Amino acid sequence: MRESADFLVLGSGVAGLRAAAALAAHGSVLVLTKAPEASESNTGYAQGGIAAAVGNDDSPALHAHDTEAAGDGLCDHDAVAALVTDGPAYVRELAEWGAAFDREADGRFSLGREGAHSVRRVLHSRDATGREIARVLWTRVSSLPSVRILSGARAMSLVIERGVCTGARVVHHERRLEARAPATLLATGGAGRVFRETTNPPVATGDGVALAWHAGAAVADMEFVQFHPTVMAVPHTPRFLLSEALRGDGAWLLNVDGERFMARYEPAGELASRDLVARAIVREEARTGAPVTLSMAHLDAAWVRQRFPTLADACRERGLDLATDRVPVSPAAHYVMGGVATDIDGCTTVPGLYAAGEVACTGVHGANRLASNSLLEGLVFGARAAASMQHAPRAAAVTALRPRGRMPEAREATVVPDPDAVRELMWRDVGLVRDAASLGRAVVTLDGWRRALLAAGREDVDTTGALVTVAWLMARGALDRAESRGGHARADFPERDDLHWMVHAGESAHDQDS
Ligand code: SIN
């Protein structure tokens, strides 16, 4: 069965929906999402908020400065300029479309503070900002007559004809479907589910990166994974993100003796950038041999419960009071800075194929994303990709990628793994702190699994296929980059090495063939 449209959008998070809203004026749009409910995406889980320079004491230049400092020397300056300059208008537009951002008594946006931001600049809707943004975009897009949305539709491969992407092969409720369009946007979100411990929902299995890789597109910077420092770690209960906004509003990190320990590791304390806070937690746990906790007990309890109702409920379900108890926390995989290499207009290296949001690597986050920049990224780059899709097919000249070095390989195909085996391996060997021995082991094991999938004729991007491909790309990137920077920490190369590694690095399946 075949469906045709002028524009095909894979994914229904903020990037996909913002793109669809723009594309609807220019032709028919088919939005495909594998979630049973189209509103299920990483976007809906974003708690803290959306950063934009809308405050009186702020400016795009200051926002750019903070974004680049968090990015640890590797941000693409043009991408950052687009994000911070265009961002405020897109956020105001969302408010006009009905997003209920919290406001001060005089009507100005109420702005939160988060780690590594030098001023208050995070707009929020209590502690469920992503859910509110998803609601507004979803309401708008689903009312547009030129947009058709199919949920429960999973892309298994991209259609490539004479080097140009012309659509995707899809399974929709067990029915095979070919969705054709001159321009296809990957807006499939992140890949946190490749790790055992993650803040991401089950849909975040990195499908877009795997689809693009198999279609021959370049993939960049996959070694840079952000581990969120404060995920609720109550034994025998699912992990739950405790927003950075808590620390922004004064929460403390305490060790087993009840001491605030962050200043021992970082001058900015609890408000250092996420990679630094996450690694400090791991070091403190190793030093004391006990988990660390997050505490708001020194703040006004009624205010805490009113400002963070969703988090207070989540704590209550686990038998804890957010306002008065010490809540056990530990880091978990949260966001992938790398992805499908694009220019700042969403063009990939394959004509007709575009990418925006977490699946893409514009270089806007460098080696580590500034808190609350991802919803903004989805809005700004979703809209930019939509503008270039109107002139499809275009391909980006992503020329500045350093090719990956020689990698160890498996001697033969092994067995097709269970998805949980991939997640265990990644958490153990490619997690918060890596070294050559663990990474070399991981690359070989993942290569054996990859070959096993091919030997079994499983070339489609099913869940296992996506996880293995993405994990293998991450492990290769992490083994290749012999330095520590942003979200990539090597125990055997603990320093940042600007002389050799001030570069984006990447590869495509074509490089491997040549
Ligand atoms: C958080 O609220 O801490 C997560 C939001 C983000 O990743 O920017």
Element layout with pairings:
Layout: E1 2-4, E2 7-10, H1 14-23, E3 29-33, H2 42-45, E4 50-51, H3 60-70, H4 77-96, E5 111-112, E6 122-123, H5 129-142, E7 147-151, E8 153-161, E9 164-172, E10 175-180, E11 183-186, H6 207-214, E12 219-220, E13 225-232, E14 240-241, H7 244-248, E15 252-254, H8 262-265, H9 274-288, E16 292-295, H10 301-307, H11 309-317, E17 326-336, E18 339-341, E19 353-355, E20 360-361, H12 374-389, E21 401-403, H13 419-429, H14 436-455, H15 463-480, H16 498-501, E22 504-507, H17 509-513
Parallel strand pairs: 1-10, 2-3, 2-11, 3-7, 11-19, 18-20, 21-22
Antiparallel strand pairs: 4-6, 5-6, 8-9, 9-10, 12-18, 12-22, 13-14, 13-17, 15-16, 16-17
Quote the beta fraction.
Answer: 15-25%
CATH fold description of the largest domain: FAD/NAD(P)-binding domain
Poorly predicted runs are none
The side-by-side strand order for the widest beta sheet comes to 7-3-2-11-19
Can you tell me the overall shape? globular
Task: Please give a structural write-up.
By secondary structure, the chain is an alpha/beta fold. The protein has 3 domains: 1-224 and 337-401, 3-Layer(bba) Sandwich (FAD/NAD(P)-binding domain); 229-331, Flavocytochrome C3, Chain A, domain 1 (Alpha-Beta Complex), CATH 3.90.700.10; 402-513, Methane Monooxygenase Hydroxylase, Chain G, domain 1 (Up-down Bundle), CATH 1.20.58. Helix content is 35%, strand content 19%. The protein has 17 helices and 22 strands. The strands form 5 sheets. It has a 5-stranded parallel sheet with strand order 7-3-2-11-19, covered by helices on one side. Helix 13 runs antiparallel to helix 14 (436-455). The longest helix has 20 residues, at 77-96. The mean pLDDT is 95. The site of succinic acid has 10 residues, from helix 7. Succinic acid (SIN) binds at residues 46-48, 243-245, 335, 371-372, 374.
